Backbone:
């Protein structure tokens, strides 16, 4: 299995275990805010961006817009995720998912679909995330 470099934008207080445990074998780079994520993208190549939708003091939509407007970053698959949703956030999830897709996100994940307070299906979460990794077969097809 090829190891990929994955940038994960999540708040400093987020539980990172579900992503860490489901993506073992990949190089995970965690950024706590948009400026940190921009530095990572400017200095290193990444194969996938995963961003929390509800950031503490920033707007994930601004980060998504920035990535999709940048020549080099726009081709990197971008997944938005939500975790530990409040009742209000759960009611808004379909609207938020639609907005992320309209703005160019490649995927939308609810971590609550894979993990609850007691257990987490890491294999299923990994499988869902890895669907978005750019494969060598896709690269061959795009060059033809």
Residues:
């Amino acid at each position: 299995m090829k190891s990929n470099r994955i940038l994960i934008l999540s708040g400093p207080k987020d539980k990172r275990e579900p992503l860490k445990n489901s993506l073992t074998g990949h190089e995970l780079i965690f950024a706590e805010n948009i400026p940190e994520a921009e530095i990572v993208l400017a200095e290193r190549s990444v194969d996938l961006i995963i961003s929390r939708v509800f950031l503490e003091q920033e707007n994930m939509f601004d980060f998504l817009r920035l990535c999709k407007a940048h020549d080099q970053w726009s081709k990197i698959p971008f997944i938005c995720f939500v975790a530990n949703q409040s009742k209000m956030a759960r009611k808004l999830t379909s609207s938020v998912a639609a907005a992320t897709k309209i703005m160019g996100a490649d995927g939308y994940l609810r971590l609550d679909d894979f993990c609850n307070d007691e257990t987490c299906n890491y294999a299923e979460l990994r499988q869902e995330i890895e669907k978005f990794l750019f494969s060598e077969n896709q690269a061959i097809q795009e060059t033809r």
Remarks:
- Residues 48 and 77 are 5 Å apart (CA to CA).
- The first strand starts at residue 5 and ends at 9.
- The helical segments are 17-22, 34-43, 60-69, 87-102, 122-130, 136-143.
